[in-house]
Design a protein that fits this description.
mainly alpha
Length: 55
């Protein structure tokens, strides 16, 4: 029971980290032109991604 909980929490954490890293990579690959077209700020996008995934 305790081991199952530990494994489940570890898998959940790893999945969150993979998702976070994937989104960060996408944001980092946006050019300045892309950001201007989106009227977006890279740092704000990164903040929102972190907030969305980790709370």
């Amino acid at each position: 029971m305790i081991f199952d909980n530990l494994v489940t929490r570890a898998r959940t954490s790893m999945a969150k980290r993979r998702h976070y890293n994937r989104l960060v990579a996408e944001i980092e690959n946006l050019s300045s032109r892309d950001l201007a077209d989106l009227r977006a700020d890279r740092s704000e996008m990164l903040y929102q991604v972190h907030k969305q995934i980790y709370g």
